[in-house]
Amino acid sequence: MVTTLVARLAAIVGEKNVLVDEAAKAPFLQDWLGKYRGAAAAVVRPGGTDEVASVLAACREAGISVVPQGGNTSMSGGATPDPAGRAIVLSLTRMNRIRDVDPVGNTMTVDAGVVLAAVQEAAKAAGRFFPLSLGAEGSCTIGGNLATNAGGVAVLRYGTMRELTLGLEVAFADGRVWDGLKALRKDNTGYSLRDLFVGSEGTLGIITGAVLKLFPEPKARATAFVSLRDTSAALSLLARVRERCGDRLTAFEFITGDCLTLVLRHVGDVRLPFTQVPPAAVLVELSDSDDDSALGARLEASLVDAAEAEIILDAAIAQGATQARSFWRLREGISEALVREGRAAKHDVSVPVAQMADFIVAADAAVAAAAPGVRPIMFGHLGDGNLHYNLLKAENTNDADFAAVAPVLTRIVHDETARCRGSISAEHGIGQLRVADMSRYKAPIELELMNALKAVFDPTGLLNPGKLLPDMSNH
User: Fold this and answer.
1) pLDDT digits 0-9 by tens, 403-416
2) Could you tell me which residue ranges the FAD-binding PCMH-type domain spans (predicted)?
3) What percent of the chain stands above pLDDT 70?
4) In this structure, are 234 and 268 located in the same domain?
């Protein structure tokens, strides 16, 4: 059956675009973090929406599962097949056309396999701006960004991918295609099908194209690195900057002092703008579409007010683009520093912004009681309530012992998140990593409705099995 299917798929996409050799398949079978490794009968690389639809129809007829994959940058194993080896991986990277750029309507229509950085560059070439910005923007694709409802550093001003998308094109498991590529801001004709597929991690249909929102290109930026006593002070500063600067506030990134220490230890091309590491810090950025020479003055005035109110300890305002990039390098170096420091339990949570300080205090205390010596290393998009709450092993603990206690620590962090009515995944998705937790943290009625939708769009369960939706057979 599989051999017959492979021949049929080769007839659809071309023999060279059906990979069956183990060495050729290998890069598609392991996630980039090295947490998950699977197997597949083949890796299929369609060149357009019609080919995606035909591949899906063939796989459904053969009863073969399909795992969609873009840039393979998932943080939660959402694009990696299981070890059984019967699925195919559907790689969309050949679908990399920018179909249309409309600078008047401020939209761009793209294939799902277009790399995020290419979208940013195309927008810039048209005198426009696409605001999604991620560490993996040089390799992640728009389809993957949509499948996980990616956020990034500019959510505070521009929103997540759901807010940045007007229309979608989706191929279904039975081979049908929904052409929802409408560049409309208003369409009050019933249910918003678009919103079902954004964040669905390829479990309902395969996104093959999208209409994205563009914005005027920022012509002025003002960036500051600010030292603070704690998270409560950061929240007070956030309120003051928002009050004075309004929608000009583009980014408000929170970093603990312990996190900065790791960056300084492991990343060679960084420099702290202060004489010593503060207890906490925020990276603040304002932007404006006007060439506003007063933008820096507006940020400075906000920081002066905060200093007079004893909210901040110190602040450095970037004197030009080079220094601004050096501030951002401190933020961008965190992931590299964490990898180099050693084993960590990583959590991507969101809680109501006003509860962030209380959440950190409670989670820190619970973690310390359960595993003395474990080191909380935190950073995140404080302005939208998204915190990357990472736990490094105690310095006298080996990896095996830490691996044994890590699930307990994750349960503690997620329970505290739920107590605050937060989410166990803010921007990285559920994938394989958190699928077992869904039954604990989603209300039964939510899971019931999600599974009902799955049954409508993918009744045979062939699309990205084992991701996002928990097995409800025992519930």
Assistant:
1) 999 999 999 999 99
2) 36-217
3) 99
4) yes
